[in-house]
Amino acid sequence: MNIILKSAKIVDPTSSFHNQTVDLHLKNGKIEKIAASLVAEGAQVIQLDQLSISPGWFDTSVSFGEPGYEERETLIHGLDVAARSGFTQVAIESNNNPITDNQSIVSFIKQKAFGQTTEALPIGALTMKSEGTDLAELYDMKNAGAVAFGDYKKAIDNANVLKIALQYVQDFDGLVLAFAQDKSIKGKGVVHEGITSTTLGLKGIPPLAEELQVARNLFLLEYTGGKMHIPTISSAKSVELIREAKAKGLQVTCSVAVHQLALTDAKLTEFDSRHKVLPPLRDEPTRQALIAAVLDHTIDCITTDHTPLDIEHKKLEFDLATPGTIGLESAFGALNTLLPIDVIVDKLTAGRRIFGLPETSIAEGQEVNLSLFTTAGTWTFSKEDIRSKSKNTAFLGESMQGKVYGVIRQDKQTFNF
Q1: Residues labelled catalytic
Q2: Domain 2-52+364-378+398-415 part of CATH 2.30.40.10
Q3: CATH 2.30.40.10 occupies which residues in the chain?
Q4: Is 121 in contact with 357 (CB distance < 8 Å)?
Q5: Which of 14, 180, 254, 374 has minimal Cβ neighbours within 10 Å of its Cβ?
Q6: Confidence class of residue 40 from pLDDT cuts 50, 70 and 90?
Q7: Neighbour tally for 163: CB within 10 Å
Q8: DSSP code at position 319
Q9: How many Å apart are CA 325 and CA 333, to the nearest integer?
Q10: Domain covering 57-354, topology
Q11: Tens digit of pLDDT for each residue in 127-140?
Q12: Cα–Cα dist 35/7, whole Å
């Protein structure tokens, strides 16, 4: 690698060059030099319209399917989609077939993804087969490369199992992911319980289903200690509970999905199953409360919650369709219509701290880990913008702002130009 990035605006509050427009010399996987103007013999010069760069983005919740569901997405193709969407690292959920509940599957994912621009970081299941009964091989998976442990979209009904897990992982500084949804309150609900669900005649899922689990899980965390991450929250009350827990000094973090910040249950009027997600799209006051929680940093990070699904599972009657949307390709363009760029970068990189990964900064001598983008320009997300094998996006027809140019990580690069 021998690259000169010309006239790049740096978006990195940890860097002394934050908000400055400079040239960068990248060589052999390192940031060799940063200055107002640079020339290097034999270097590839990259000069892009209104280029901005930031530390590489990290998505804390991505599903690809492989092994077992390659018809939805494969690891190699999915990682290429992630790179072209601006992500240099992604945490891959355990919802494969077989479930990622042992070191062999963790090792398979790591080995299959080796050498790609975007790094794959497996999440191990918290319980065997994600059935919520017996703990999986957590320590062995940690040694094999798992960065956290959680049963994807499944709450742990047995409080004692979660208690033991929180106690056990402290021996090796593990992170427990605790999805929050009370199944008995959810029942057969498929959308947010409110005016829209009543109008459409669809069974509702009240925010209470999430809030009860969040409250219980925080009580357990207070008792056990350890670290807990609550993924994809969708309730204003959940925000309050987490804010109070942080004030007590508990090691709790949380994420919100891009679609919860950008969309509401008003999208459901056409019964389009592309908008069926879990937790469900909430109402406008809740959306505003979640944005406020991002801005005041109660919500630590933003995820795409990228979930590819084949047409057989998605293009069905609304009640029967599987919840989930792809979100990598649309993430930056959607967020750029909602939040300041400094906040976007912070929330797309904070996951490294949460998951115990080395943090990165734009400074001379640092390893290259960069996302390249522009905040300028508006456009509409269309089918042509979908790179994933599965096409189940909730963002079709939505207005976007800014574009991703690509990523550079170590000595590898993937560009959209």
Answers
A1: 305
A2: yes
A3: 2-52+364-378+398-415
A4: yes
A5: 14
A6: confident
A7: 18
A8: T
A9: 16
A10: TIM Barrel (3.20.20)
A11: 999 999 999 999 99
A12: 10
